[in-house]
Automatic annotation (TrEMBL):
Keyword list, A-Z: Dioxygenase, Flavoprotein, FMN, Oxidoreductase
Protein name: NAD(P)H-dependent flavin oxidoreductase YrpB (Nitropropane dioxygenase family)
Gene3D superfamilies: Aldolase class I
A Pfam match: NMO
Amino acid sequence: MSDTAIATALTELVGVRTPIVQTGMGWVAGPRLVSAAANAGALGILASATMTPEQLRSAVREVKSRTGAPFGVNLRADASDAGERVRIILDEGVKVASFALAPRPELIARLKDADVVVIPSVGARRHAEKVAAWGADAVLVQGGEGGGHTGSVATTVLLPQVVDAVDIPVIAAGGFRDGRGLVAALAYGAAGIAMGTRFLLTSDSTVPDAVKARYLAAGVQDVTVTTKVDGLPHRMLRTDLVDALERSGSTASLLRALRHASAFRRDSGMSWAGMVRDGLAMKHGRELTWSQVLLAANTPMLLKAAMVEGRTDLGVMACGQVGGLIDDLPSCAELVDRIMAEAHATLGRLTTGL
Ligand SMILES: Cc1cc2nc3c(=O)[nH]c(=O)nc-3n(C[C@H](O)[C@H](O)[C@H](O)COP(=O)(O)O)c2cc1C
């Protein structure tokens, strides 16, 4: 490991060596990837929405057995069992709570009282302003080029807009893979970068080799956005499945969604009543129809088919546009060291004019 630390408000807040975050990706960000990222000096975040609470507790313990470095857990603030998951975070002394949607002020306060750092993810300035006013410690802002559920505003536009709007540290996500990007984000006023697709494509990620090969072979034009998986804009690799979903009618979509909702209920250990409660929470404050809520169960099951079962034909391969530029599988340690070395070289070039 080279001595290339860059101190920012993020490294100070969380106690990590580098201003780099490995984001919570469903079925991808498990104990192995998270501990490798943490040991490399980044903030690793465990994805918990696709785990039962018992699985979350044992995953947290596994990370702790593999690293003494700080790490985080990503959860859905609107999940009916969010309270139970927060209990696990508190019991196990997890350093960071990352939220896919804005957590309520009471939840933020409960975590902060226990010295847990609260970092919600947002895709719009007004959401950043809201969570900052509610007491979030930092905010992760994802531009439209990012993988998974995504907005339409590019990182280069959204990031400075959010930096200007809030007084808490802002972490930039969407489109990052190297040290030039880190320096660019810092220049915009960010406190660090968060990467999903880049960490998925490491030798430490447990994603099956056949799936990684599909990502490595993809160019920028092979990454698309569809609303056909769960009704929300979702960035992923364009595959035959995605083309078929784009063509399929609403009856076929609903039948598939019902099948997946049933499978997700089994996998997540949730009751039907719990799923309906979660569906109601999702609908609340958003313009979603019941069929869109039902379709939501499609995402975890289709993501699992690719990320766990290696089904490149049947699964969804969420991917940022940056996936089109990535063609290697470094370890997390190699990746983080490389990014920091590139960042220093870039800073040197800028200051000496070479
Ligand atoms: C395979 C995959 C799965 C993802 N799953 C989740 C998730 O479960 N929860 C979440 O908040 N974001 C999820 N995301 C979004 C990432 O956490 C992150 O914000 C995004 O990948 C950043 O953009 P990038 O891919 O350009 O680095 C996922 C992204 C990918 C690529």
